[in-house]
Amino acid sequence: MLLKFSLSNFFSIKDEITVDFRTENISTKSAKELSDNIFICNGKKYLKTIGIFGPNASGKSSIIKALAFCYQTILYSHLNNNGAVFNFMPFKFDGYHEKSSSFSISFIQNEVEYEYSFSLTREEIVSESLYYYPGKRKAKIFTRNEQVGKRKDEIYSFAEGYLIKPFDVANSTSRNTLFISRASQMDRELAKVIYNFFLKNSFIGVPKISTNYAVSLFKENKQLLLKALQMADSDIVDISVRQEKINVPIPPAYLQIGTAAIPSIPAMQHETIVRFLTVHKKNNSIHFDLFSEESDGTIQIFSLLLVLLDVCKNGKSLIVDEFDQSLHSELAEFIVNMVHASKNAQLLFTSHNTNLIDVKKFRRDQICFTNKKEDASTDFYSLYDFKDFRENMDAEKGYLQGRFDAVPYTTSSIDSIKKLFRE
Predict the structure, then answer these.
(1) Euclidean distance between CA atoms 128 and 149, whole angstroms
(2) Segment 353-365, tens digit of pLDDT
(3) DSSP H or E stretch at residue 168
(4) Reduced to 3 states, what is the DSSP secondary structure of residue 399?
(5) Hey, how many other C-beta atoms are within 10 angstroms of the C-beta on 21?
(6) Residue among 297, 365, 305 at smallest CA distance from 325
(7) CATH number for the domain whose boundaries are 1-205+321-416
(8) Which residues contact 81 (CB under 8 A, 6 or more apart)?
(9) What residue spans define the domains of the chain?
(10) Rounded to whole angstroms, how far apart are CA atoms 140 and 142?
(11) pLDDT for 66-104, tens place per residue?
């Protein structure tokens, strides 16, 4: 379960911003009527969903990209070779491209609360730490600071009893590898607990529905998926999955003969593809290929439902950029309501769908905004931060009027556009 995450110096994000699933103290009638939007864990209240709204290029996607980068670095940095460069860009103004970027995630795994942080440049890890909460105060598991010395015993500090032979792992951890990533690959139990949270309990984006993971999810949840599709007003009454081997050409190699490049004789290779076949109410004997014959909206709702059923059933977290792309606004609300109907699933999403900016659907601390500041960096805040906003007001109307500073200001009249063409 995600508790909160903070990040800084990543693309348009300059100073630290924090996305927090812990609830604010809201005791209004409207908030009480949205009791399904929260859940309780260890006596504390947490949000099931957070929506991020704002104009294009304001930094919504940067937040999702930062989380994706964080997860990928944790899961795969042990594969980095010497000289490998991390694939991101720091904030480019005000000298921030010379500073390190930082990430911190608090989460609960196996009923224990952890706080994991690291900072890095494009070339190397600068610092890393892992703490946990045995009670109200956090306790150290390990810290790493590459700037305090050259020897591993200067760089690393380990609390006793948590990791077996931690310096064996440290000695195998290069400057462009996270210790937790290397320790998991070296079969250290606690490191695998942390690693598995990011691998299995929290997802960034919707997995491709052509993967074995998607096939296993479909087989496990087929009947639930069909019922959910029908609740979403689809006329699909059945779906089957088929894995087929096809022959595909290998791109030809070019042979240099004199000054001419002659393509070699093309060869063929076998490739396994996944096909989902749909059946509609009108005729159950006719099958449609999901990828090539269904609408983009149908593909999107199928993909979302496939992973959401796993997320909702098992209390996992899903982070999606523009989750409602190609979806009718009522289908977008249906997806959100699935999470609210779950016991403790979580969904963080970005959207341009202003119908969702509604305090009858979301608490004020669930509605967040991004805006571009004068220094070109991303500003991040929630509707809860506007103390003068009352819940009998129209939040969507206020947003469109620019009250929350997170709507594009454009000169879009016909006369102004005609003038543009004349210039």
Answers:
(1) 15
(2) 999 999 999 999 9
(3) helix 166-171
(4) helix
(5) 24
(6) 297
(7) 3.40.50
(8) none
(9) 1-205+321-416, 212-313
(10) 6
(11) 999 999 999 999 999 888 999 999 999 999 999 999 999
